[in-house]
Design brief:
- By secondary structure, this protein is an alpha+beta fold.
- Helix content is 44%, strand content 22%.
- The chain has 2 domains: 2-76, no CATH class; 79-167, no CATH class.
- The chain starts with a strand and ends in a 9-residue tail after the last helix.
Amino acid sequence: MYSALVKDNLITHTGYIHELFPNVLFPATGPDDSWKKENGVYTVSVFKPHDRDTEQLVSCDPYLEGDMVYTVKVEALPEARIAELNAQKREEALRGLSQAVQGRLDSKAKEKGYDNLLSASSYAYSDNPVFQAEAQACITWRDQVWTACFEAFKAETLPAVDALLESLPTLEWPDN
């Protein structure tokens, strides 16, 4: 256990407990709280709660705060880094939305036995009028869906997956 020795609210030493007290035999769990208090031993932490979206931990000299010694401080992230993180999150969200939409398109095509929407669309020039009509319906629907998606993706706040999928046009299979 990495610890600090504190006397009169000043940190005098830091190190592993067995290094700070080489002549003391500790149990495997380390010293108990009463022993630590009697000997001015504080746990050293390299973590502080913070908002990862707007703050970062920065290494620093050890300091006492409450019942803990810290070797990190919380600082605001630079605005450029916040913007970069927000852009990354947006890209991840757009990827997730796009995958969900493509999944919806493909699953609808599978209802008619096609492998996916691309497979269904490949029958657009088929000599079989049923396949050709289904392919054209898929192509038209695909274009409507992605047009609606690209419009939704322009919003500052992206929709939830369920809300987006619910808002999309539906495919009406041709009567065969």
